[in-house]
Write a structure and sequence with these properties.
The protein has 203 residues and is an alpha/beta fold. It has 4 helices and 15 strands. The protein has an 8-stranded mixed sheet with strand order 5-6-7-4-8-11-10-9. Strands 2-1-13-15-14 form a 5-stranded mixed sheet.
Length: 203
């Protein structure tokens, strides 16, 4: 199984605040790293990250901590058909969904992250699906040309229509320039059809 080991987010040269945000607020450890980049990027960068927690109280706690640390709330946390969650934009501009499949609390709030998901917005879900299958990724779920999920270890990967992903995040799908994202894992070193770059940890 090809696994994603970490996500590297490229930020403006002042990376210290962003590093502190991910280490202290999201407690990402080595799963999310940052590195400086001057690559131009405007608007939606074509991807979002998702954190899955156990219950609404935990979602609220994490979103409050993130806002206090400099994140902007795009969508306040609320109930939906599928659960409970909201959307944040981190200080570096990355969009994060914080959610729980549960609509009711079962205990005190905690910030333990049950799952982390990298959601790529792509032009052609079917073509991108085949591209990744050809590179050894293991398919977990597939819903036609709308949504694909791969089993990539502790960081899951999903493919979504770019416009649908932006709509879910509550932002315009328009954007130009760099994704400002590097995906580190054992699938190899390559760039996918939508310009997302992967690199082997030893590459």
């Amino acid at each position: 199984m090809a696994a994603i080991e970490s996500i590297v987010i490229e930020v403006a040269p002042t990376t210290q605040q962003v590093e502190a945000f991910y280490a202290d607020v999201f407690s990402m450890g080595g799963r999310v790293q940052v590195r400086p980049s001057e690559a131009p990027a405007t608007g939606f960068r074509g991807f979002t990250m998702s954190l899955v927690l156990s219950q609404p109280a935990s979602v609220n706690s994490l979103m409050d901590n993130a806002r206090d640390a400099g994140a902007m709330v795009i969508k306040p946390a609320a109930k939906s058909l599928w659960g409970y969650g909201g959307v944040l934009q981190a200080p570096d501009g990355t969009i994060w969904t914080v959610a729980s499949s549960s609509k009711k609390d079962s205990g005190p709030a905690n910030t333990h992250i049950d799952a982390m998901v990298l959601q790529l917005g792509v032009a052609d879900v079917a073509a991108s699906k085949q591209f990744y299958l050809d590179r050894g990724l293991t398919l977990a779920k597939s819903f036609g040309n709308r949504y694909v999920e791969f089993d990539t270890g502790t960081i899951k990967l999903t493919l979504n229509k770019r416009s649908a992903l932006a709509k879910t995040a509550g932002v315009s799908p328009d954007g130009t320039g760099s994704h400002r994202l590097l995906i580190s894992g054992d699938a190899g070193t390559f760039t996918d059809p939508d310009g997302f770059t992967w690199k082997s940890p030893l590459g």
